[in-house]
Write a structure and sequence with these properties.
Blueprint (H helix, E strand, L loop, with lengths): L4 E6 L3 H12 L4 E7 L3 H7 L7 E3 L2 H7 L4 E4 L6 H10 L4 E4 L6 H14 L4 E4 L6 H12 L5 E9 L9 H20 L3 E7 L15 E7 L4 E7 L7 E8 L2 E5 L7 E3 L2 E3 L6 H4 L1 H17 L7 H20 L3 E2 L14
Parallel strand pairs: 1-2, 1-4, 2-3, 4-5, 5-6, 7-10
Antiparallel strand pairs: 7-11, 8-9, 8-15, 9-10, 11-12, 13-14
The structure holds (2R,3S,4s,5R,6S)-2,3,4,5,6-pentahydroxycyclohexanone.
The site of (2R,3S,4s,5R,6S)-2,3,4,5,6-pentahydroxycyclohexanone (ISE) has 5 residues, from α7.
């Protein structure tokens, strides 16, 4: 490994460009060597004025011509599988934005490829695991100091959904975070998913049923509910309330300055996830870079990506059937049994 990890960032959309900026300005021990995007101009824009960054429209082209030590994969989820297989084939560590892949079968084929290497190379971008509040909340589950956990109530509100955001994406791109959060917090797998669709906001784009109410059960019977509201207008809100036998723990309360003036008081709601979770993304990337440099894998694994994909599949089936859909997982391979 070179003194500074040479990273290829694949996909230069909102998240990819943000990761380029983060790796360039804030992350220690890594630098961006290349940016790939099917639209070359977008790759160039993400590379900003740095002419030392190679830009290309094909991953294979970059991997054949430029030396890189690791990859950040930030294309849409439907394109992940091919890129992951290519990267794994070359033994490269990768931070893969969620979802690992959009369905359980393709996620499993990625797991099989990783197992073929005999080492973990993939970290999945379930960034909430790096949020200090989530970590502290998990502490209550682990310690048992408030008795047994009973219920989890989640709120997940976006100001507005991006163009083309479908009902399936409400589950695959948004609620996927709560599926992982539930697994992370409780240490349990998810047993079933039910989706209720009630009154639609007038702000929902044509064809999208927004908001939705997702009801989830874990193996031991902990009940979780998620309000996914993609066009909530007010800004970005992600919060959770965990109910234990002997107390309640709340995360994601609005923070920041409170201004009092002219007989009123108030603060700000962040506009989007990049603003709300900036320091959490930084922590996630820095932790991944440190882990890759130390050859000591940490963070959410491909197994976590597979399990979340299976939950999403059940969630999408539940949206269509109005029934409670069980989640079936294959047996956990030994490569993943020591962690998470
Ligand atoms: C987006 O991809 C995210 O990861 C955000 O955290 C989530 O709030 C949003 O709904 C997704 O589209």
């Amino acid at each position: 490994v070179s003194p500074s990890l040479r990273i290829v960032v694949i996909g230069a959309g909102r998240m990819g460009a943000d990761h380029v900026d983060r790796l360039t300005r804030r992350i220690v021990g890594a630098k961006v060597a290349a940016v790939v995007d099917i639209e070359l101009a977008r790759a160039r824009r993400a590379a900003q004025a740095d002419l030392s960054i190679v830009t290309a429209s094909s991953l294979e082209e970059v991997l054949n011509s430029t030396e890189v030590d690791a990859a950040v994969l930030a294309t849409p989820g439907v394109l992940h599988k091919d890129a992951l297989l290519e990267l794994l084939g070359r033994g490269l560590p990768v931070l893969c934005e969620k979802p690992l892949t959009p369905d359980a079968e393709s996620a499993w084929s990625v797991l099989e490829a990783e197992q073929g290497l005999g080492v973990r190379r993939i970290q999945v971008g379930f960034m909430r695991r790096f949020d200090p509040e989530y970590q502290r909340l998990r502490g209550w589950f682990v310690s048992g100091a408030l008795g047994a956990p009973l219920m989890l109530h989640f709120v997940h509100r976006n100001a507005e959904s991006p163009p083309g955001f479908t009902n399936e994406m409400l589950i695959n791109d948004s609620v996927v975070h709560e599926f992982d959060a539930i697994r992370f917090l409780t240490g349990e797998e998810i047993r079933s998913v039910l989706v209720r669709r009630g009154r639609i906001t007038r702000h929902a784009p044509a064809g999208q049923h927004d908001p939705q109410h997702v009801l989830i059960e874990t193996e031991s019977g902990i009940l979780a509910d998620v309000e996914i509201f993609s066009n909530a207008q007010l800004g970005y809100q992600v919060a959770a309330q965990a109910v234990f036998e002997d107390g309640v723990v709340v995360t994601g309360e609005e923070q920041g300055l409170r201004v009092s003036s002219a007989g009123r008081w108030g603060g700000e709601v962040p506009r989007g996830f990049i603003e709300r979770f900036r320091s959490v993304y930084d922590a996630e990337l820095q932790s991944w870079v440190n882990a890759v440099r130390g050859d000591q894998p940490v963070g959410p694994t491909a197994w976590d990506g597979y399990a979340a994909a299976a939950c999403c599949e059940a969630g999408v089936a539940a949206q269509k059937s109005d029934e409670k859909i069980p989640v079936h997982l294959k047996a956990k391979p030994s490569l993943y049994s020591t962690l998470s």
